[in-house]
């Protein structure tokens, strides 16, 4: 794979001079913000999102919904506190153009919404978006009654010819390449005439917590959802047709984006407090409490947030990350600095994420002197003494933050295109410097 040469700017990753001791306010969750936007746009009354994430992926989602006629206004929440978006749902209209960037949530969650619009909606995005799997959404929508023009590859670019309504009903989908196929169909399901019944037919299903997030958030706006966990058939989710409520929702901090900061506590034997860590959440990042404890830290969850403390040692880990794939780059970075080898399993679908993450991590860590090999479904990482060098990011926000974690321990690491963190965490360099007291 060729590194991106369009972004030549190099960011010297700060080297930690001692144990970090910081409070880091992590911005809102990408996954929660983009689901909340879609559900608010499909509701039958206005709603509020408080403390939404404002990053490339969520601004693309808001822009796309606005292009289809939805009102999304800046404001303060109903109680006067905090920044907020007020969402004013309307009839969804085409013609419209949607730029998905490289946002999985936008490219997968919005074609079903567009099928409810009363005109054509054209979807396009970054070159990488053409390579990311979308066939599950396209094929399922066609089976449910939508007309879609694409170039036959089952991918972007495409046009959904919305007719103002979609019949809906039962549909089968192989979501082994992305859980977002299931989430996409469920999110718009209440607005289909017959609702939707999604049956996953593939051998495996990644990122189950993200499907639970979809179900929880649907239920919170009044949808009736049956799931395998609620006594339904395995691998089958049913959403009944019905109106959705407009809610006043405060977005949780993005726990996957808390990862590099918690990792900094592990690397430096320091302490990081993340305020507002939810006591109960479907975010996969909550698994960090367990994974990073096994890797050598300890944590306490209080009413103020999560306090995470490193012991000075980082242990290798053998772990199946299939449920929490987006945590893989950060765990791989730590594993490269650990005192024993690691095996990260269950994440073959990461080859189709923002970049081929397994290839990118292998190449970039090895170029710094590491010893990483790809397996069929993950990585073997044998820690070695690393040296400085350029860490390429391949337009992947999580590659950039993974490189920054390595840079804490290894002098002379330079991150190419750290600005790619804007996908989900635009203030990363400032937050990182703030954590280090710079
Ligand atoms: O639904 C979501 O918000 C997400 C689901 C997961 O996608 P995949 O199932 O494609 O891995 C995850 O990796 C992505 O970062 C966000
Ligand atoms: C896989 C990710 O994003 P996307 O929503 O674009 O799939 C991610 O954020 O790690």
TrEMBL record:
Which intervals hold domain Enolpyruvate transferase?
A: 17-430
Q: What gene is it encoded by? A: aroA
Instruction: Tell me its family.
Output: Belongs to the EPSP synthase family.
Task: Give the Gene Ontology MF terms in alphabetical order.
Answer: 3-phosphoshikimate 1-carboxyvinyltransferase activity
What is this enzyme's EC? 2.5.1.19
SUPFAM superfamilies reported in the protein's UniProt record:
EPT/RTPC-like
PANTHER family (UniProt xref)? AROM/DEHYDROQUINATE SYNTHASE (PTHR21090), PENTAFUNCTIONAL AROM POLYPEPTIDE (PTHR21090:SF5)
Q: Where is the active site?
A: 326 (proton acceptor)
Q: Which UniProt keywords apply?
A: Amino-acid biosynthesis, Aromatic amino acid biosynthesis, Cytoplasm, Transferase
Could you tell me which InterPro entries the record lists for this protein?
Enolpyruvate_Tfrase_dom (IPR001986), Enolpyruvate_Tfrase_sf (IPR036968), EPSP_synthase (IPR006264), EPSP_synthase_CS (IPR023193), RNA3'P_cycl/enolpyr_Trfase_a/b (IPR013792)
Q: Spell out the subcellular localization from the entry.
A: Cytoplasm
Residues that bind phosphoenolpyruvate: 30, 104, 132, 180, 357, 398, 423
Any Pfam family:
EPSP_synthase
Q: What subunit structure does UniProt give?
A: Monomer.
What GO terms fall under cellular component here? cytoplasm
Residues reported in the UniProt entry to bind 3-phosphoshikimate:
30-31, 35, 178-180, 207, 326, 353
Known catalysed reaction(s)? 3-phosphoshikimate + phosphoenolpyruvate = 5-O-(1-carboxyvinyl)-3-phosphoshikimate + phosphate
Recorded superkingdom: Bacteria
Q: In which pathway does it act?
A: Metabolic intermediate biosynthesis; chorismate biosynthesis; chorismate from D-erythrose 4-phosphate and phosphoenolpyruvate: step 6/7
The protein's name is: 3-phosphoshikimate 1-carboxyvinyltransferase
Q: Does the keyword Amino-acid biosynthesis apply?
A: yes
What processes in GO biological process is this protein linked to? Answer: amino acid biosynthetic process; aromatic amino acid family biosynthetic process; chorismate biosynthetic process
Q: What does this protein do?
A: Catalyzes the transfer of the enolpyruvyl moiety of phosphoenolpyruvate (PEP) to the 5-hydroxyl of shikimate-3-phosphate (S3P) to produce enolpyruvyl shikimate-3-phosphate and inorganic phosphate.
């Amino acid at each position: 794979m060729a590194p991106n040469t369009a972004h030549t700017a190099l960011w010297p990753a700060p080297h930690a001079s001692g144990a970090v001791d910081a409070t880091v306010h992590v911005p809102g969750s990408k996954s929660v913000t983009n689901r909340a936007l879609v559900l608010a746009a499909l509701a039958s009354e206005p709603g509020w999102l408080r403390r939404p994430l404002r990053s490339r992926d969520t601004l693309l989602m808001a822009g796309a919904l606005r292009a289809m006629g939805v009102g999304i206004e800046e404001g303060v929440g109903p109680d006067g506190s905090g920044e907020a978006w007020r969402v004013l749902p309307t009839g969804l209209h085409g013609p419209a153009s949607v730029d998905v960037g490289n946002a999985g949530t936008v490219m997968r969650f919005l074609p079903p919404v567009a099928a409810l619009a009363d005109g054509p909606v054209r979807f396009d995005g970054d070159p990488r978006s053409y390579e990311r799997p979308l066939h599950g959404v396209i094929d399922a929508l066609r089976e449910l009654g939508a007309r879609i023009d694409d170039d036959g590859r089952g991918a972007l670019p495409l046009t959904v010819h919305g007719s103002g309504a979609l019949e809906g009903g039962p549909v089968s989908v192989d979501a082994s390449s992305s859980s977002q196929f299931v989430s996409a169909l469920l999110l718009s399901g209440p607005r289909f005439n017959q609702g939707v019944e999604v049956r996953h037919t593939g051998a495996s299903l990644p990122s189950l917590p993200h499907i639970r997030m979809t179900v929880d958030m649907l239920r919170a706006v009044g949808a009736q959802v049956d799931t395998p966990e609620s006594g339904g058939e395995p691998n089958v989710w049913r959403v009944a047709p019905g109106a959705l409520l407009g809610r006043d929702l405060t977005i949780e901090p993005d726990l996957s984006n808390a990862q590099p900061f918690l990792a900094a506590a592990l690397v430096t034997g320091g302490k990081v407090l993340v305020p507002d860590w939810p006591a109960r959440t479907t975010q996969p990042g909550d698994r960090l409490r367990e994974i990073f404890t096994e890797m050598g830290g300890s944590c306490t969850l209080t009413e103020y947030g999560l306090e995470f403390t490193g012991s000075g040692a980082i242990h290798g880990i053998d772990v199946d990350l299939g449920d929490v794939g987006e945590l893989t780059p950060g765990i791989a970075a730590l594993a490269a600095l650990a005192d024993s080898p690691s095996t990260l399993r269950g994440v073959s679908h990461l080859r189709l994420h923002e970049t081929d993450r397994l290839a990118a991590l292998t190449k970039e860590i090895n170029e710094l002197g590491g010893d990483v090999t790809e397996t069929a479904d993950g990585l073997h990482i044998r820690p070695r003494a690393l040296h400085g060098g350029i860490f390429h990011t391949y337009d992947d926000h999580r590659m950039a933050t993974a490189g920054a974690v390595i840079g804490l321990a290894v002098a002379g690491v330079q991150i190419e295109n750290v600005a790619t963190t804007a996908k989900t965490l635009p203030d990363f360099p400032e937050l990182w410097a703030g954590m280090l007291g710079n």
